[in-house]
Amino acid sequence: MTYRKRVLAVVIAAGLASGGVLAQSTTGTISGQVAPGTGDTVHIESGTGFQRDVPVDARGRYAIAQLPLGNYTVSLRKAGATVQSHQNVALRVGAATDVSFAAPAAASDTQNLEGVSVSASTLPPIDVASVDSRTVITSQQLAKLPLGFNAEAAARLAPGVVGNAGGFTGPTGQSLISFGGSAANENAYYINGFNTTDPLQAAGGLTLPYGSIDQQEVYTGGYSAQYGRSDGGVLNMVGKRGTNDWHFGGKLSWDPASLRASYDNTYYQNGLPPVPVARNLYVPRSKNSNWNTVYDAYVGGPLIKDKLFFFASGEWAKSEGDRLGAVTSTSPYTSYEYKMPKWYGKLDWNISDSNILEVTGASNTRETSGDIYKYDFNALQRGDQIGHADTIKTGGNLWTAKYTGYLTDTLTLSAQYGKMHTLNYEAPVGYNEALTYVSGTENQNPAFTGGTPRSAGQTVSSIYDPDQGNRSNNLRVSLAWQLGDHTITAGIDNLKATAEDQGARTSGPGYSWSYGFTTLPGNSPAPSLGVAAPNSTPDGAGGYYVMKNVSSAVATVRTTERAQYIEDQWQATDRLLLSLGLRNDQFTNYNSDSQPYITQTKPQWAPRLGFSWDVEGDASFKVYGNVGRYYLGSPLAPALSAAAGYTSTTQYFTYSGIGADGTPTGLTALSGPVSANNAFGVPPDPRTVTAKGLKSEYQDEYMLGFSKSIDNRWVYGAKLSRRVLRTGIDDFCDVDRITNAAAAKGITAASVNSCYLINPGKANTFVVLDDAGSAHDVKLSNAEMGFPKIKRNYYALDTFLEHPFDGTWYGRVDYTYSRSYGNTEGLTQSNVQSDGPSQSEDWDFPALMVYSNGLQGNNHKHQLKMYGYWQITPEWMVSGNLSLISGSPSTCLGLFGSDNSDPAGYNSNYHFCDGRPAPPGSTGNMPWQRQLDLGLHWTPAFADHKLGLNLDVFNVTNEQAELSINPHYYQDATGTPNPLYRTPLYLQDPRYVRFSITYDY
């Protein structure tokens, strides 16, 4: 073994002892081994003129941590004179780059490295100091691979990352992703170390303009104690920065409607409604059209050479098209326009070689508008204009400031503070408050309509406060101390968030009408709520009825989340690195009166323990492992429901006529206003909102894996991982159990809440107020609540084979075998399109959890991903991205038990199908998702390869697999078959072609 190989493990492992102190993972490390007697100091200088000198220790090691990303010249000096030098050393976010110096006599080739660029292919492909599981996508890879222009598309390259099965999107329209069996809103998003996660529902977060991403880090597990508030994954974007060289450029991208394949229509799959509009047609998606344009420009360079730099970029994206609704929709045909501007700016100030200040600003917004038209679904022709679609503005802006002080050679201080303001503005255009919203027109009695559905054309169902939005601020401070073989980092991570005027109320007069129909008029549509059967009145003998719906919930709420952490990266031996971390999280949520209703301020210890073993001592074979606990704070959305006095009621009627505006006449009440969740607008006492001593949701994770290289040209490996959800938070709405338990203790409950936040699957203690306002504790065991223990388990085997880029080609293959099972998916319930915390039906009532154990909605047993690129000539390159993902489980939800009862008043939402038990996954799977994307890139020599012409074809084979279907077997509690059962709700996008022109100077 040569000297160079012998020291390789020492260099990367020992030098990377500083790897864990990378503040917010926006920086990198340079480290290495120096041959005895070769030099005494190492000098580095970046493309911005930033310089540092560190001594070589007695073991011949050196490490320089928390360095801004960029290209560096690294020089070994002896007595002040440079003896060896490596140039163009590029750093990777969150990792260390090995730059070692061998003795001249031992390796004359090392001498020749002076003035030669060091590329990734000349460095060891295995990072033996990392103990986590992550994928780093560089800006060069983003430019070469055929990917959608969004951060989530790039993140899906990582093993175990899939699109959510429910088709959920974030505030700015991006499709949310699921990490390792977790729900799609259990992830954390960062831009340059600032937490941009959506505070309201944790539905994604703000992201950078695609061309501004320098590196994107995707953590799929094992991340350090500096990260928290996620039991899914972390998506960390590091933006580009200016240097001493001027750079500018831009991009124009266009995918025309004429080259987009037709969408597949969807049809009723389980019979037809009483008055079908267009036979079995449900959504004529083949008449949809869509085209997109993206303009991108950037410029960066020095304001003061070696001192002050800037980088600025803008992205203007627009999507236009026509979208067909369902045949029953009040918005049957919408001609829409989406504007999605983004910008990013960064200032870097090298105050001195020991002090750096960075200021970042970014914006990611989306504005939608459109016109709504009538549509003849039989002739497939557009009619007259009905009105305008709501103007919706989402997303927002952020700014951050970060200071890094290299106080000594071994002591580094990092402090960052930032603010974010996002909008959630929705305003109806041309809204007529005199009109009432009417739905379910396919169920109107044809005796009164002649078979032609009637409505007043009200397309607005809900009214929102125009000032609603979110604000948050994030403070992070860390101090790193390198002490011999230990690098100890301690820090705080504090976040405050406020949801302002969030929520909505029913449009028009404050109520809406929804028509229903049953083939069994002698059965009640909601027996548990005391609703009479339709045929109890003469007008309901045919099974026709109507519901009056009232909904109102608007509030301003906030949360405070604090965390402290400490970790030690200990180079125990030359080949063994131990990562020992501990994090403590605290969460407090406040209602609209600024009263705390969740207080989780006692220590919540989250240990993070990892190791990396360089087996051969030459960085060719690494074995690593990690054990960690991850806490998740509750988003703000539950404060608008369980913690607020919201109203959500339904009143049932039969009718003897239907007016020209679609509203019923001649009403006979079948019930008063009823609510399955007791939501009658009474604000709850904050002491009673949650179970006493409510614990945070948390998950334990275990990983063990290896990576092995073959002559530095190929790398292969495997990883076993297991995730176990230990505690969850959900709402519990069976208030009678609480009041009955209180009565058994001689306590008369003066009032009850709509629902209570609990730790499901465990005993919970509730606070009940009597007539005098005195509080009493009422404890219910899990058996008394009627629930099984909470379960969400995920295990996976990830394998990969990678060929690092060698100047000609790059390729990677990942195969994941996994299983996600239990009785809860988490903060979303993708199989029933429930996309927010406390909005799922899980745990509301015991009957809903019977036969609930099974495969979860984001389970994909097999995942095969292949991507890469080939530089055929200096001018021509081809690229590809192939994914083969087995389908998620299909779901059938019916009425309860063999007698088709409805004990909770939730209609067809129990784990029974046609009277038979139907655990999740027992009724088959969705089709495989197959997608092949190809790219062709030409950078002509006559333009010095700065001009690029690109052609990308997405979904080449035009697969349009069903990703989600309607799971409800019955239409209502009467047992009437649901014509929409198994009708597709969300499908794979068809083939489309994208043209791009780029210029980079």
Q: Can you put this structure into words, describing what you see?
A:
The chain has 1001 residues and is mainly beta. The protein is built from 7 helices and 56 strands. The strands form 11 sheets. The protein has a 22-stranded antiparallel barrel. It has a 5-stranded mixed beta sheet with strand order 8-13-14-11-12. It has a 4-stranded antiparallel beta sheet with strand order 3-2-5-6, with no helix packed on it. Strand 33 (605-614) and strand 34 form a beta hairpin. The longest helix is centred in the N-terminal third of the chain and has 13 residues, at 3-15. The protein is globular, with a radius of gyration of 30 Å. The two termini are 44 Å apart.
Structure keywords:
1001 residues, 22-stranded antiparallel barrel, 7 helices, 5% helix, 47% strand, globular, disordered N terminus
Annotate the secondary structure layout:
Blueprint: H1 3-15, E1 27-33, E2 41-46, E3 51-55, E4 61-68, E5 71-78, E6 81-90, E7 96-98, H2 108-111, E8 133-138, H3 139-144, H4 151-155, E9 161-163, E10 177-179, E11 188-191, E12 194-195, E13 213-221, E14 234-239, E15 247-255, E16 266-267, E17 281-283, E18 289-304, E19 308-324, E20 333-352, E21 355-376, E22 381-388, E23 391-406, E24 411-427, E25 438-439, H5 446-449, E26 462-464, E27 469-483, E28 486-506, E29 512-517, E30 544-571, E31 576-590, E32 596-600, E33 605-614, E34 621-632, E35 647-654, E36 657-658, E37 664-665, E38 668-669, E39 697-710, E40 714-727, E41 730-732, H6 735-744, E42 756-758, E43 764-769, E44 775-780, H7 782-785, E45 792-803, E46 809-822, E47 854-855, E48 862-871, E49 876-885, E50 912-913, E51 916-917, E52 929-938, E53 947-954, E54 962-965, E55 984-987, E56 992-1000
Parallel strand pairs: 1-7, 11-14, 25-29
Antiparallel strand pairs: 1-4, 2-3, 2-5, 5-6, 8-13, 9-10, 11-12, 13-14, 15-18, 15-56, 16-17, 18-19, 19-20, 20-21, 21-22, 21-23, 23-24, 24-27, 26-28, 27-28, 28-30, 29-30, 30-31, 30-35, 31-32, 31-33, 33-34, 34-39, 35-38, 36-37, 39-40, 40-45, 41-42, 43-44, 45-46, 46-47, 46-48, 48-49, 49-52, 50-51, ...
